[in-house]
């Protein structure tokens, strides 16, 4: 057991399995007191019980750590406040939030319903906002705190059939940067992790063609627990100068992602017309256009 986050109080949403479970266990093993939040529902949103969260709490306690289960939803302001209140009631403070809770409603865009789009944004983007907002005033008052948000290369790069998920995950990147900017004066940090890992969510990926089966086989090699060390570090005081960044974890590899910046510029002294845009501006910039690629096209090498 290390002391990287000794005596810190950490909320981990979606802690009942997969990546969230790995992070909750690692936080506790590194000395944190953990609120294991999980609604206990399936990927389709059905069901719900304390079982998944409580099982992780039992694991932590059996190993000598401190943890409590919570089943409030991240998708509403009132219930998100209850998650933070659970930390305060049981441990007296809150030091870090890991926004990991998620769902999937994969569908090709031209077939996606408004409900399917909204359900994913409600949990991923709005859920990240609600829980972060519930913790923000406590972080401000104590002049310190850390947010760790889960984004995805599906948003950062692209993927098929995930317009809702991609939009939510890119929204989280912007939210994280704004939190970092707005709350830096209070020593509050905010960073993102894009995880590659085999989990309950990725297990829903269809695998019918040989290419799809090969992709899934690679994902299955990427253990969910591999995400945890970076999350623990980002929640710790050792990361006091790290904020507003986007990281990616893929098996034993940690990447730092670029962020949008101008890469090419053209000017016209007399101003632009639609015709001159077509004749001059676009040809000048075309060589710098990004291809339409998926995450697996860009990050194509095998994990270690």
From TrEMBL:
It comes from the Bacteria. InterPro entries: KR_dom, NAD(P)-bd_dom_sf, Peroxisomal_Beta-Oxidation, Sc_DH/Rdtase_CS, SDR_fam. Residues 8-213 form the Ketoreductase domain. SMART domains: PKS_KR. It holds the Pfam family adh_short. SUPFAM superfamilies: NAD(P)-binding Rossmann-fold domains. Belongs to the short-chain dehydrogenases/reductases (SDR) family. This is SDR family NAD(P)-dependent oxidoreductase. It comes from Verticiella sediminum. The lineage of its organism: Bacteria, Pseudomonadati, Pseudomonadota, Betaproteobacteria, Burkholderiales.
């Amino acid at each position: 057991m290390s002391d990287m986050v000794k005596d810190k109080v950490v909320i981990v949403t979606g802690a009942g399995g997969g990546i969230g479970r790995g992070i909750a266990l690692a936080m506790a093993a590194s000395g944190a007191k953990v609120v294991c939040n999980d609604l206990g529902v399936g990927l389709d949103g059905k069901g719900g019980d304390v079982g998944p969260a409580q099982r992780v709490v039992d694991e932590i306690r059996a190993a000598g750590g401190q943890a409590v289960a919570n089943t409030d939803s991240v998708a509403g302001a009132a219930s998100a406040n209850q998650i933070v209140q659970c930390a305060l009631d049981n441990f007296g403070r809150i030091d870090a939030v890991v926004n990991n809770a998620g769902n999937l409603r994969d569908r090709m865009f031209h077939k996606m319903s408004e409900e399917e789009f909204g359900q994913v944004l409600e949990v991923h983007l709005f859920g990240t906002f609600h829980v972060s907002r519930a913790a923000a005033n406590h972080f401000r008052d104590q002049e310190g705190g850390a947010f760790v948000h889960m984004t995805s290369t599906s948003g950062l790069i692209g993927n098929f059939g995930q317009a809702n998920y991609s939009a939510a995950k890119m929204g989280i990147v912007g939210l994280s940067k704004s939190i970092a900017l707005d709350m830096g004066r209070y020593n509050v940090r905010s960073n993102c992790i894009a995880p590659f890992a085999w989990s309950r969510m990725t297990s829903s990926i269809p695998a019918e063609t040989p290419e799809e089966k090969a992709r899934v086989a690679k994902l299955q090699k990427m253990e969910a627990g591999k995400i945890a060390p970076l999350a623990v570090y980002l929640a710790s005081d050792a990361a006091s100068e790290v904020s507003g960044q986007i990281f990616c974890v893929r098996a034993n590899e940690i990447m730092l992602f670029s962020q949008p910046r101008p890469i090419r510029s053209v000017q016209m002294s007399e101003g632009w017309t639609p015709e001159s845009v077509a004749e001059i501006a676009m040809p000048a910039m075309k060589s710098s256009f990004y291809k339409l690629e998926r995450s697996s096209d860009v990050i194509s090498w095998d994990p270690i």
